[in-house]
C-alpha cells in the first residue's frame, strides 16, 4: 500500500527538524504580522494617514491591515500550486524569504509628511506582497510536519500554529520594550521602525533551519503515484468543493476571535482610556499561555478527536464574546489580563490548535498544499476584516454598546459548529489514502483506488462518510 511505502522514509529526527522548521517559520510570520497589527492600531494613523481625522485615520490604518489578509488566498493558490507540483520545501524557503524582506522594507518606508500619498500606497503594496507570501507559508509548514509524522499528527502539526503566539509574544515584548525605552512620542516619530527592521535577524535563523529539512515523504510518494497530476486548484475545486467550503467555515470563528483579541482590543482599549502598556502587557502574557494551549489541545485532539474540541471552542468563543468587553471596560490591568489569558490562552487554542491536523486530513496529497492553504487563508480573512468590521459597527451605531460585536461572534461560532459537525471526525485518516483520485478521462489511465475501498469517487463526498483506516 502507498501508506506503507511512504512511512519507510520517515524518521523521528527529521520529523523533529521539520517541526522546528515549521515552528520558526510561523514565529517569523506572526512576529511580522503582530508588529504590523499593533502598529496599525497605534501608530500608522499618525504616520501614513496624518491627513485624516483620528477616527478615519484609524479605520484606514486597520484597512491596510486587512489588505494583507485579502491577499492570502491568492498566496495559498500560487504557493499551493507550486508546492503540490514541485515540492513543499522549495516554496517554504521562498515564502519565508519574502515575508522577512517585506517586513524589513516596511521599516524603511517614508511617512506621509515626507512623501505624501506615495507613502500609504507603498505600505499597501508591500502589505499585499507580504500577504501573498504568508498565504503560502502556513499550509506548507504544517504539511512538512504532518507528512513527516507517523502518529500524533495533530501534536506535530500544531507546532506550526504554536509559532503564532510565540511570534506575537516576541513582537509584543519588542514593541513594549521599545515603547518603554523611548516614550510614545519618539516611538511614533521613528521608533516603530525598529521592530520591523529586527525581523531580518529571525529571517536568517529561519532560512538556515528550513534548508536542513528533507522534502515531505508523502509528497515524494504522491509524485511516483501520479506523476502527471493536474492543476491543484482545479483538482480541489472539482473534487472537494464542499470540503473546502466547510474547512473555511470551521476556522472562521477562531480567526474572527483572533482579530478581536490581538488587534481590535488594542484600538478599543486605547479609545476608552486604557494605557497602551497595560493592553500590550496583557497581550504578551496571554500569548505565553497560548503557546502551551495550542500544543496541549492539539495533543488531546489526537486522543479524543478534532471535532469535540472545535465544538467546545466555538461555544466558549460565543460566551466569551459577551464577557471580554465588560472586562476591558474595567480598565483594571489584572482583570484585563485575566480576560485576555482566558480568551487567547485557553479558548482560542481549542479551535486554532486542532486546525492544523484537521486541514492536513481533509485533502488528497496531490492537492493538499493548495486545499489546506486555501481553506485556512480564506477563513483567515476573518482575522483581517473583524477589526475593521467591529470599528465600522461601533462608528455607525454611535452607541458605546458592544453587544452587536458579541452577536457577530455568536453567529460565526454557530457557523463553525455546523461545519465541523458536517465534516465529521478526521483524526484516524491515513494521509497516503487517495479519496478523490483522477478519473480515466482526466488522466488517460485507470483510476487509482483508495486504500480503504479500492475505488475513487469523482465528486466531493462528505468526509464524515469516508473515514480512512486508523493510523
UniProtKB/TrEMBL annotation:
The chain crosses the membrane at residues 21-44, 56-79, 91-109, 115-134, 155-182, 194-213, 244-267, 279-297, 309-328, 334-353, 374-395, 401-421. Residues 438-471 are annotated as: Disordered. Keywords: Cell membrane, Membrane, Transmembrane, Transmembrane helix, Transport. The keyword Transcription does not apply. It is a multi-pass membrane protein. Residues 439-465 have a biased composition (Low complexity). It holds the Pfam family MFS_1. The keyword Glycosyltransferase does not apply. Residues 18-428 form the Major facilitator superfamily (MFS) profile domain. It comes from the Bacteria. SUPFAM superfamilies: MFS general substrate transporter (SSF103473). GO terms for cellular component: plasma membrane. InterPro entries: MFS, MFS_dom, MFS_trans_sf. GO terms for molecular function: transmembrane transporter activity. It is found in: Cell membrane. Gene3D superfamilies: MFS general substrate transporter like domains. This is Sugar phosphate permease. It comes from Brevibacterium sandarakinum.
